[in-house]
Every structure is written in C-alpha cells, then in structure tokens.
Design a protein that fits this description.
The protein is an alpha/beta fold. Helices cover 31% and strands 23% of the residues.
Length: 320
C-alpha cells in the first residue's frame, strides 16, 4: 500500500525569494506499507516546475501498490512525486533488510556535512541584521534577484564579514545586470553565484569568462539534463525534488563528476524527513544547502541534528 498525506510546517519567519514569499512549508508525506513495515518519504511540490499538492498527490495515487524503484523510474518523470516514493521505497528496503540505506546503495558510511544557511530576501537593513545574527555560520546563502541587489549584498557582507557568501538569484537577473554585478560580487568575496539567468536564456554564460563560479539550479534536473550545461556552468545544484529521488540523484552525481561539474546539494523548504536522504547525496559535495529544517519553527518528531559540524546523518527512527 502507498499512502500520501499533506503536512504543513510553520516557518520561523517569512521566507522570500525573487518569485514570492511563504510563511509555511507545505509538503506531502508518503508511506509505503508492506509486510507490516512502513517506509517514509517526503516531497515539496514546486509551482516553478508545474507541480501542485493536488497534481503530485494524483501522480502518487496512480501508482501500483507493489511498484519497485526500477519500475518507478519508468512510471513517473523526474520531480517531486517520484522523489517521495523513491525515498520511501529506500527506507522500506532498509527496514526490511535491517541495514541502512547507505549500505544497501553501496556507499560509504555518511558523515556530518557543513551546511549553508539561507538569508531570505528583504530590505538591506533587515538583511544586515540577519547576517549579523548568523555571522557565526561558516557559509551564508543570500537570496537576491532584484534591481537593488548591490545594497543588499553590501549590507550582508557588513553584517557577516568572515562568512563565505553564496548568491542565489533564482533566475532574477538579465545578462546585462549580471555582467554589471559580477565584478562587485568578486570584490565582496562571493564564492559562487547560483542561477543568475533564467533557464533557457543562459547561453551567454558559455561566451564569457567566469572568474566567479556559476552554479546551475533551475537549469539542472536529472542526469540527462547535465550534459547541456557543460561550458555554461561550473557546478550543478542537485535537489531530490528535481532529480525525482535518491536513485536518480546518485546517477546525476556520478554524471556531474564525469562531466567535470562541481556539486552542490540543495533542497526545497521542507522538514528533516525531506533532507535525510539528501545527506547521502551530499557526501563529498563542494557545497551543501540542506538547511530547510533550520528555517522551520516546528519539525518532525525525530529531527535531524545540526551543530558546528553541520547536519548529521539521520537516525533510523526518521529515515534510512
């Protein structure tokens, strides 16, 4: 049996990017129940990719109850629905075998991974205050993508002078804006910029020097999508809600390495259940942006542990 239910988690504060704001994380929780064992998975339907809670629920409910991970890859496209079911099937397999997912997948034992903390888009004054509150964190990721970005960036750097900074424009810049901003990003010590241009309008990245590494997010989905990014991007941001689960995420990770692309592992705003499988994907990645639970005011009953070492692998009571 496969069940799917909606869950809502309140955010600690309003989270804003260039496309809009949210006060709650709306997720779908999937349970695969077989032989008295329940495997769990979570996904975050994302409107940018044409998903909704209803459409993803319908996809999941249309699956055969006894579907395998291999058949799932053929039954559903890369995306949120396949992610939740794939991760639930991995969790079920681990519980049935009495062995952790990393062992079943032929991976090394996972270790804690340093995590970037995301600062929501706001006024320069508020962003400086938030940066100062989080200046102890080694990596800060800044949501930008508006005409007033330089003021915001200067404010964040003033608030957190020692943190590594990453910029996520969420497709919000034009080529002209990016070309104008790039030297200032380098001057302020930005480590990389994520998806500065819209998907499908990013060819100019192949035509310019990139002294500042550029990471694909909305342009990177599953393994098959990555070859077209070589020459335009230096890294790719893999998210399980884009790859369609851990199975394809591991394939995409291997493909990125084959192509010589660096790796970031990111997330939508979700709970610890959604992050847990991605910790396996994030092992050895250049950057890890699995900070979704840090943005929540409430989480799952068995949440992930975040500390100075980063995010720790999940306990079996949560997943895997």
């Amino acid at each position: 049996m496969i069940t799917v239910t909606p869950d809502t988690f309140a955010l600690a504060q309003t989270f804003t990017i260039s496309r809009g704001s949210k006060t709650h994380a709306h997720v779908l929780t999937v349970r695969v129940i077989r032989d008295g064992i329940t495997g769990w998975g979570e996904c975050v339907p994302y409107a940018r990719y044409g998903d909704s809670l209803d459409s993803v629920t319908a996809q999941i409910k249309g699956l055969p109850a006894d579907i395998t991970r291999e058949a799932l890859h053929q039954a559903l496209p890369a995306g949120a629905a396949r992610n939740a079911v794939d991760c639930a099937l991995w969790d079920h397999a681990a519980k049935a075998a009495g062995r952790p997912v990393w062992h079943l997948a032929g991976l090394s034992r996972p270790r804690p991974v340093p995590v970037a903390f995301t600062l929501s888009l706001n006024t320069p004054e508020v962003m400086r205050t938030e940066a100062a509150k989080n200046a102890h964190r080694p990596i800060l990721k800044i949501k930008l993508g508006t005409p007033d970005d330089m003021q915001r960036l200067e404010a964040v750097r003033a608030g957190a002078p020692k943190s590594i900074l990453m910029i996520d424009a969420n497709e919000g810049w034009t080529p002209e804006v990016y070309a104008d901003l790039a030297p200032h990003l380098i001057r302020l010590g930005v480590a990389l910029v994520e998806q500065p241009l819209p998907q499908g309008a990013d060819d100019m990245l192949a035509e310019i020097a990139r002294p500042l590494p550029v990471c694909a997010d909305e342009s990177a989905h599953d393994a098959a999508s990555l070859a077209a990014l070589k020459g335009k991007y230096d890294l790719v941001n893999l998210k399980l809600d884009k790859t369609g689960g851990l199975t394809e995420g591991l394939r995409a990770k291997a493909e990125a390495r084959r192509l010589g692309l660096g790796l970031m592992v990111g997330c939508m705003v979700g709970s610890s259940l959604g992050m847990a499988p991605a910790i396996l994907l994030a092992q050895g990645a250049a950057y890890c942006d699995l900070d979704g639970p840090l943005l929540l005011s409430q989480d799952r009953a068995q949440p992930l542990v975040y500390d100075a070492a980063g995010v720790h692998p999940a306990q079996p009571e949560l997943w895997g």
